[in-house]
Structure formats: structure tokens, C-alpha cells
Write a structure and sequence with these properties.
The complex is a heterodimer of chains A (186) and B (299). Chain A is 73% helix and 0% strand. By secondary structure, chain A is mostly helical. The longest helix of chain A is centred in the last third of the chain and has 24 residues. With 299 residues, chain B is an all-alpha fold. Classes of the chains: A mainly alpha (186), B mainly alpha (299). At the A-B interface, helix 2, helix 3, helix 5, helix 6 and helix 7 of A face helix 1 and helix 2 of B.
Chain lengths: 186, 299
């Protein structure tokens, strides 16, 4: 049975109230959701709270889920993203936008990162640089690199078109280069 | 993104999750999930929902039945005695009569039905379906007799019956004219008349029921009628105006059997000894609830 078909079957079972199937769904997605959330909120305790909330919300809303759009994973991470945003709102950190997101020219992304790849980076430094990106740019980086999402799936999570996701990814890499170059110069 | 740098980023973003965290979170989520599922189950088992689930097919069936019934009823209202829906029409008429609560209303409804019988007789005669006529006449008699009873009861209750009485008189007049048109010239011409092949014994000589014999109002205009004119014990009403008194005889009349006047079904006035169109001799046993026209349709 293909992975997608298996997932469909699992979701259908959860929709019919099968707790065991729900456990299987949880096991299947926990790591990726937890990693995705932790990379944004940084505090493991916060991440645990948020992830628990995400999975319970999934169970509450799964009856309304239909296989349209980019699929179950995109639907799940949309919930996770909203819960993370709520977490920041509750903390009074309403926006994670930086000035780096403004006025970026269209420079090929590959060119931007080539020079960056030549040197060795401290992982913490890279993670900090990512957190300085705008929320949407962070999402593109996280969803693309951590979860291997397609542009369509990312678009579904962010409620954007595939073209907009492409442009967003380009801007994210450009901003990241600026941040890292800046950090290198210091 | 170049593969090398994205790999670096990917590695930087990778998260190692301690088993303890995974397990703690799972327990928390599964406990919450259990509650959610119980709540969902309770929601779907709510009496309102269950009632709705039960009610749905019942409502659907009722709607279909209503549509079917309404359609049939609508079609039956114009049914003629030779139509297969005619029994439905008779049942509807009976229903209409039974929902009229007051005696005077019942009388009014029954007179209207008697008029309908005459329309049908007219129709059957014009379409050369005279074999239906005896039973229709019998039904007319039954309706008029019953209407007379109700009218008498209404008069006894002190109700104003003049309007319904006028309707009854009009019905009788029409009945006489109808018989005249069916039988041709009167008895003094000694003509055989229209042979209806029915054996009916309707008469033209005294074309009215007891009420009309009393001056067109059945003796009820003085409000003393119930005793002196109760159907069955009054000479003019006896045997022909009693409730349903004619109904058992419809089949035998069609066959020109005993009590039919021995004319082999002729409607000649000489054979019509009863004022309401049916011979009292042909009445062996009153059956108030029988429906002659229903038997007629089962030809």
C-alpha cells in the first residue's frame, strides 16, 4: 500500500473515532511537528505544550478535513503554525518581521548561498540567523528544509500561491545571506 | 538553494527528541484524545440526533405517502363509476361526510354527494353505460335517506334547516327530471321506455321521499318530524329511504333478479313503484355501511 493511501486510511479511521489510529497518526507526525515548533519557540516546555495542543486540535477538527488541496500534512502544519503564532501573540511578540525583509532585489538564490557554503558554520549561529528572518520566510525555510514540503504544500500552510512561495523562498535565502555576512564581519 | 548549504541548514535545524519527551507528550495527548472522543460520541448520541435519525426515514416515507395520497385523491375527485379510482372517490366522500360534525352539515354534504351521483348517472347514460345506473340510483337513495335523517335530527335540535331543505328539494327535482329523461314518456303512454337492462324500480309516480310528500319539506317545517317521519316507519320512507337500504340489492338489480319488478331490467315507470327509485320489495336487509358503487366497479 502506498504511503499516501495508508495515510488516507489512517485519517479515515481517526475520523470514525478510532483511538488506536489516532495514536498511530500521532507517532507518525510527532517528531516533525515537535521539531518544527521547537525551532520557532526554542523552549522545549513551550514546544511540548504547543505540540500537545496541536494534536488535540487535530482530533477536534479532523471530521471537517477533506482530501482537497495539499493533503493532510499541510493541513496539520497549518494548525501547528497558527498555534505557534498564537503562542507569540500571547507573549506580546506579535510580529517577527525584521527590516531585512524590506527592499530585497531579485538576486538568484543559488548565487547567494554559494559563498556561504564555502565556510563552516556554527549550527547555533545558523539557527539564530533563521530566527531573524520574517515569520513567513522562516516558515519557508523550516517547511522546505526540515519537512521537505513542496511549494504547493508550503503554499497551503501559508495560504499563498506556489509562485508566491517561490519568491518568498528566494527572499528568505537573500535575507539569510545578509544576516550571515553581517555576522561574519563582526 | 545549493545542495551543500541547504544540507548545512538542514542539519542545523534537525532536532533530537528525547524518548522521555515523546512519551510524556503522547500520554498527555492520548488522555486528552480520549476525552474528546467521548465528547464527540456523546454529541452524536444526543437524543435530538437520534430522534432526527429515526425521524428522517419516517418523514421521507410520510412525505412520499402524502404526495401519493394527495395525487390519488386529486385524480379520484373526477373519477367516474367505470374508473378504477372510483372506490377512492367513494372513500373520500365518506371521509368528507364523517368530518362534518353537525347534523345539518352532514345533510348538506350528503346532498352534494347525491348531486354527484346524478351527474354520474347522466354521464353513464350519455356514454351508454347504463349497467352502472342502478347502483348509482341506490347510492343516491342511500345518501338522500341519510341526509333526511340528519336534517330531521337538526330540525329536532331547533336548527334552521331551510337552506339545506331547499338543496334537498332541488336534488329531488333534478332526480325526477333525470329519471324522466332516462325512461322517456310516462306510464300513461304505455311506452316501454329506455331499457336500461338494470332492473331498477325507480318510479315517476310519486317522485319524492316522505319529506317532500309533506309539502316539500318532509313535514319538518313544524319541527315535529322526527317521530312521525323517521325513516323506516313512515309509509313513504319505508324501505327506500332507510339508511343504506338499497345497497344490498345492487347486484341482484343488475341481474334483474327477484324483487326487480320482473321486467328484466326495464326502467319503465310502470316498474318503478318506489318514490326514490328503488322498490321496497327488493330490500331484504338494510346494510347501512355497504357501498354499492364499490361493487359496481368490480365488474
Amino acid at each position: 500500500m502506498s504511503e499516501k493511501r495508508e495515510l488516507k486510511k489512517l485519517v479515515r479511521r481517526v475520523q470514525s473515532g478510532d483511538l488506536e489510529a489516532y495514536g498511530a497518526l500521532y507517532d507518525r507526525f510527532f517528531d516533525s511537528v515537535y521539531g518544527y515548533v521547537l525551532r520557532q519557540v526554542r523552549e522545549p516546555a513551550d514546544a511540548e505544550d504547543i505540540v500537545s495542543g496541536v494534536f488535540l486540535e487535530v482530533l477536534e477538527k479532523i471530521d471537517g478535513f477533506t482530501w482537497r488541496g495539499a493533503g493532510f500534512a499541510a493541513w496539520l502544519f497549518r494548525i501547528a503554525r497558527n498555534d505557534v503564532l498564537d503562542h507569540f501573540r500571547r507573549r506580546g511578540n506579535r510580529s517577527r518581521e525584521t527590516e531585512l525583509t524590506v527592499g530585497i532585489d531579485a538576486v538568484p538564490a543559488a548565487e547567494l548561498v554559494e559563498s556561504l557554503a564555502e565556510r563552516s558554520w556554527d549550527e547555533q549561529e545558523l539557527r539564530t540567523a533563521i530566527t531573524r528572518l520574517s515569520e513567513e520566510q522562516q516558515q519557508v525555510i523550516l517547511l522546505k528544509l526540515m519537512l521537505n514540503f513542496s511549494n504547493r504544500q508550503i503554499g497551503d500552510v501559508l495560504d499563498k500561491s506556489e509562485g508566491a512561495v517561490k519568491a518568498l523562498r528566494h527572499r528568505a535565502m537573500f535575507s539569510l545571506r545578509q544576516i550571515l555576512t553581517e555576522a561574519q564581519g563582526k | 538553494m545549493t545542495t551543500e548549504f541547504t544540507d548545512i541548514l538542514r542539519n542545523a535545524l534537525a532536532v533530537e527528541i528525547p524518548d522521555q519527551v515523546r512519551e510524556d507528550c503522547r500520554q498527555r495527548v492520548m488522555a486528552g484524545a480520549d476525552q474528546i472522543l467521548v465528547r464527540k460520541q456523546a454529541r452524536s448520541n444526543r437524543p435530538a440526533n437520534r430522534r432526527l435519525q429515526i425521524f428522517k426515514p419516517v418523514a421521507l416515507a410520510s412525505a412520499m405517502f402524502t404526495l401519493l395520497f394527495a395525487g390519488t385523491a386529486w385524480a379520484a375527485t373526477g373519477a367516474e363509476p367505470d374508473d378504477f379510482l372510483y372506490p377512492v372517490k367513494q372513500h373520500l366522500e365518506a371521509a368528507r361526510t364523517s368530518i362534518a360534525l353537525q347534523n345539518i352539515d352532514r345533510a348538506r354534504v350528503q346532498i352534494a354527494h347525491a348531486q354527484t351521483r346524478m351527474d354520474e348517472i347522466d354521464n353513464m347514460a350519455s356514454r351508454d353505460r347504463s349497467n352502472y345506473i342502478p347502483a348509482l340510483l341506490a347510492d343516491y337513495d342511500r345518501l338522500m335517506a341519510s341526509a333526511t335523517e340528519h336534517l330531521q335530527a337538526a330540525a329536532a335540535d331547533g336548527e334552521d334547516i331551510s337552506e339545506v331543505q331547499a338543496l334537498m328539494t332541488a336534488a329531488r327535482t333534478r332526480h325526477d327530471e333525470l329519471l324522466r329523461s332516462l325512461t322517456g314518456p310516462g306510464p300513461d303512454t304505455d311506452q316501454p321506455g329506455t331499457n336500461m337492462g338494470t332492473g331498477t324500480t325507480s318510479t315517476m309516480e310519486t317522485p319524492d321521499t316522505g319529506m317532500q310528500n309533506d309539502g316539500g319539506n318532509g313535514g319538518m317545517d313544524n319541527g315535529t318530524a322526527p317521530e312521525s317521519h323517521s325513516p323506516g316507519d313512515d309509509g313513504s320512507d319505508a324501505g327506500n329511504a332507510g339508511p343504506g337500504s338499497m345497497t344490498p340489492q345492487a347486484p341482484s338489480m343488475e341481474q334483474g333478479g327477484p324483487g326487480s319488478g320482473g321486467s328484466g331490467g326495464s326502467m319503465h315507470p310502470s316498474n318503478m313503484s318506489s318514490p326514490t327509485g328503488m322498490s321496497s320489495q327488493s330490500v331484504s336487509e338494510p346494510e347501512p355501511d355497504s357501498q354499492p358503487a364499490a361493487r359496481m366497479t368490480g365488474r
